[in-house]
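Can you give me the bound-state structure? Components:
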Amino acid sequence: DGGITQSPKYLFRKEGQNVTLSCEQNLNHDAMYWYRQDPGQGLRLIYYSQIVNDFQKGDIAEGYSVSREKKESFPLTVTSAQKNPTAFYLCASSIRAGGELFFGEGSRLTVL
Amino acid sequence: DAKTTQPPSMDCAEGRAANLPCNHSTISGNEYVYWYRQIHSQGPQYIIHGLKNNETNEMASLIITEDRKSSTLILPHATLRDTAVYYCIVRGGANFNKFYFGSGTKLNVKP
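Here's the bound-state model for the whole set.
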């Protein structure tokens, strides 16, 4: 079945360590997105990519980095510069920029 | 971007229609209204979207007022599985590739 796969589902890390969250899609979508969600809050856009080898900062990009070397993959690295990394991270894709979003199941990161 | 206002929570009896309101008074002519829902600790799920006409699909109906300043999502026969947070999103214009999710409405469907 086509869809978006995020891994790992749960991740624990020590403060000061970089962490990379995986996002893979087999929907042949051009655009991919990363969102962050804090408890009781809506989603906030971290980074998005409209096409391979291109990406733009969202509203809260500081402390995060991404790459888009393949159409299917859009990994997110949470760096040690991110002040409050503990959150629920959601990856999404759309057939084209601005199209309907399809979400993965999320990755919950806890920094100890 | 147009921002949206939704009540933080609503209750609905199982089997009854759930009507979820959304205000988007600053919406511009080329911006769409989207609805998504999120069941606890899962990724949001697309429900429906519209520009100015009312829309219906197998999940819900979307009623947009004539002046487009507000809309209502209708779940015709709510079930316990419809308990979720519902997000009303306005998207389009210069930032067409960004979806802005507010805090949404927590719908509690009760038996």
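A couple of observations. The two ends of chain A are 36 Å apart (CA to CA). The mean pLDDT of chain A is 93.
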